[in-house]
Design a protein that fits this description.
The chain is α/β, with parallel strands linked by helices. The protein has one domain: Glutaredoxin. Helix content is 43%, strand content 19%. It has seven helices and seven strands; from the N terminus they run H-H-H-E-E-E-H-E-H-E-H-E-E-H. A seven-stranded mixed β-sheet has the order 2-1-5-4-3-6-7, with helices on one face. Strand 3, helix 4 and strand 4 form a beta-alpha-beta unit. Helix 4 runs parallel beside helix 7. It is globular. It starts with a helix and ends with a helix. 29% of the residues are buried.
Amino acid sequence: MLTSAILSASLLSVTAPAVDVSATLLNQARRNPIAALKGKPLPAFTMRTTDGKTLTSRSLRGRVILIDFWASWCGPCKEATPTMQALHTKYASRGLTVIGANALEDAPGPKVAADYKKKGNYTFTFTHSNDAYHKSLGFPGVPVFIFVDRKGVVREVFDNFSPQLGRSFDGIVARLVAERA
């Protein structure tokens, strides 16, 4: 009896090893790019539009930004484009900038994105050759949708698309454009 009481007391005094919470969170962020971006400032970018202009995160300061990383060979990406156009049409006058950021093409350059924009009669901004920025954010594929508030903070990130998810994008954008910087 006495032995089991001593053993129980010994077990109760054993403590778990100290855990470095910041290292754990960093490792989770490395495995989960969404966790790494949400709630943090959007990393600075410079993109080239299909009509040869330069677009930067700095030039969009004070606007709500929706970056849609897409590729011409990606079915869900193509399925999402009409949703991006609808959001642009509805919210551009209220401060939304939609960027169709083409990435992961076999032949980077403006042609694929420009042809896609023209064929679909899309009026929002398309950029090209965004592989390096896409990779720097840690995403292995497309589509990826990044919602950024007027202060430049990433509020939502999605790395997939479905019609149901697309319908939720309207509510996200409505909230963001209603906020003041």
